[in-house]
Design a protein that fits this description.
The protein is of the alpha+beta class and about 550 residues long. About 55% of the residues lie in helices and about 10% in strands. The strands form two sheets. Strands 3, 4, 5, 6, 7 and 8 form a six-stranded antiparallel sheet that branches. The chain is globular.
Length: about 550
């Protein structure tokens, strides 16, 4: 009877958390265009990614319509999972703007739900509900969602909480998939949180460490080419981190704005606040540690409080880990930390120091639940959670414009002809961004002849060349490793010409020349590693189920 009662209460707690999260992002479920810093970039990415999937590319690398139709290897380097989800939702009939909002809503709700599941395992139902609710209203959530429109960060944070919950419940397969989800959702968030997750796993259950590695291997198809092909592109990181340090007052004093970050954007600048309630929680926890009002550390006290028991490890270690992580993140967001940034070049990839506010999104519910689980006055705990909602509720109402159909974006060159990057700075080393579209996909640039287009697909272009003297045919597409040429069915290595496009010599007569994009040997190896790892993972699930059923 007690089990059924507790299960019922746990379901009620979960329902409360889901309702609160839906209320917080209710505007994401309403029709209309949500103006954000990155939103329109993502709409075009969804569209281009969907074109590649429809053309049969399981692992899209190329954005064929960008760079004024010359194409750019955008998806080789930019996180793919939001594009998989967004393009799938779009294929179901939703508009690009709807797909963007629903994808972001899914990431946020996943984060809050997984936060509750994780904290319930550690501290029980009541602290988990309050901790999750307070975590749901950390101000940086609404900066990410309603100001920046960073769908990748939102999704990645959802998988961070999923990974933590998987560790707590010893769900090995789910942990591997969650780690893969973090990496595929946002490269930079993965760089920030993977060290934290590794330390947390080491402190709580070392047997789960190998599954973190499995998750990394699962995503080989993405990060291996992204790392090794960096010399082939420019503009991956055009941000000078020195221009984006918030002032101490901006971190501490609540504010709100929708402007950009950096010099020259002081008017209506976006908010960098940690948040009044998260700051209160972090300082309170730190004060408790200093005054030795610490949490139970012995095996006996942990049995009394019902916390999970792991031999040789204390409850305080993970708590201190997140407190230290929050403190380090706070320090690195201040300008006084520039010498540290300069000595650790890896930090440059974070781009914006204020992005470390995301650490507070994870630390706040964890430390909150830990503290509230020790407070004997439930009304005080409820009051603190209500204050968190009250203080941040005004941030949950964004500007919403009238509905814009897909044609609005797909017919405007300012959306379709760029490189979906800051200032159109991203391009290959062979061809910079071109503002004008090609007049013809194939043309003869040397010799006498006539070319007739037979096929012009997403990444396949076929022309019939008739020439009496031979010459050179140019395919007006940006060269990048992976482009191949077939001349009368014979494979020819594609090479870049002086314009950064692909040129092929031909002899006199009639020839069928096809230029197409494919995987390189490096990418095929990375694809194979990911597929083999995925196959092994699901086989292990089946074998485990078979073993359990037979015993």
């Amino acid at each position: 009877m007690n089990y059924r009662k507790n299960l019922f209460i746990a379901k009620i707690g979960f329902l409360v958390v889901i309702i609160v999260s839906v209320i917080a992002v209710r505007w994401l479920f309403l029709p209309g265009f949500l103006p954000t810093h990155d939103g329109e970039y993502h709409l075009i990415r969804f569209y281009e990614f969907g074109r590649m999937l429809a053309a049969g590319h399981l692992f899209p690398r190329w954005a064929p319509g960008l760079n004024s139709g010359y194409g750019v290897p955008l998806f080789t380097f930019f996180y793919p999972l939001p594009n998989y989800i967004g393009s799938f939702v779009h294929s179901m009939g939703w508009s690009l703007a709807d797909s963007f909002r629903l994808t972001m809503a899914a990431g946020y709700i996943l984060a809050i739900a997984a936060s509750y599941v994780w904290l319930k395992r550690l501290y029980g139902i009541f602290p988990a509900v309050l901790g999750s609710v307070m975590g749901a209203f950390v101000p940086y959530w609404f900066v990410d969602i309603f100001v920046r429109g960073s769908v990748g960060e939102v999704l990645a944070l959802g998988f961070v909480f999923s990974a933590l919950a998987s560790i707590a419940y010893k769900r090995r397969t789910l942990l591997a998939l969650a780690i893969a989800g973090i990496i595929l959702s946002h490269n930079i968030i993965a760089m920030i949180f993977l060290p934290v997750l590794l330390l947390y796993t080491l402190m709580t259950d070392r047997s789960m460490l190998r599954w973190v590695c499995v998750g990394v291997i699962l995503t080989s198809y993405f990060w291996v080419p992204a790392l090794l092909e960096r010399p082939y592109v420019v503009g991956l990181n055009t941000v000078n981190f020195r221009d984006h340090f918030p002032e101490l007052a901006q971190l501490l004093i609540p504010s709100w704005g929708t402007g950009f970050s950096g010099p020259g954007f002081t008017l209506d600048e976006m908010s960098y606040q940690v948040g009044a309630i998260p700051l209160f929680v972090l300082l309170s926890f730190f004060a408790l540690q200093l005054t030795r009002m610490s949490f139970p550390r012995t095996r006996e006290s942990r049995v009394k409080t019902g916390s999970p028991i792991r031999s040789g490890m204390t409850d305080s270690y993970p708590l201190v880990l997140f407190m230290v992580a929050a403190g380090v993140a706070f320090f690195l967001m201040l300008e006084i930390s520039i010498p540290v940034w300069e000595r650790i070049p890896l930090l440059f990839n974070i781009q914006y120091p204020w992005r470390l506010l995301s650490v507070g999104i994870v630390a706040t519910p964890f430390l909150t639940a830990a503290m509230l689980s020790r407070i004997r006055w439930p009304f005080v705990s409820i009051g603190v959670a209500l204050c968190a909602v009250f203080v941040s509720y005004a941030y949950t109402k964004p500007v919403l414009y009238d509905v814009r159909p897909d044609e609005y974006y797909l017919s405007r060159r300012e959306f379709t002809d760029g490189t979906s990057s800051l200032g159109n700075g991203f391009s290959t080393v062979w061809m910079p961004w071109r503002p004008e579209r090609p007049e013809a996909r194939m043309e003869i640039i040397s010799g006498v002849g006539l070319v007739t287009m037979k096929e012009e697909g997403v990444t396949t272009f076929t022309g019939e060349v008739v020439s009496s003297s031979g010459g050179v045919l140019r395919t007006r597409v940006a060269y990048y490793p992976g482009w191949r040429v077939l001349v009368d069915g014979k494979d020819v290595n594609a090479t870049p010409d002086g314009q950064g496009m692909i040129s092929t010599t031909f002899s006199s007569g009639t020839h069928l020349i096809t230029t197409y994009f494919s995987e390189t040997p490096l990418r095929l190896i990375a694809d194979g590693i990911s597929m083999l790892c995925l196959f092994w993972l699901f086989c292990s699930i089946i074998l485990k189920k078979h073993y359990e059923n037979s015993n």
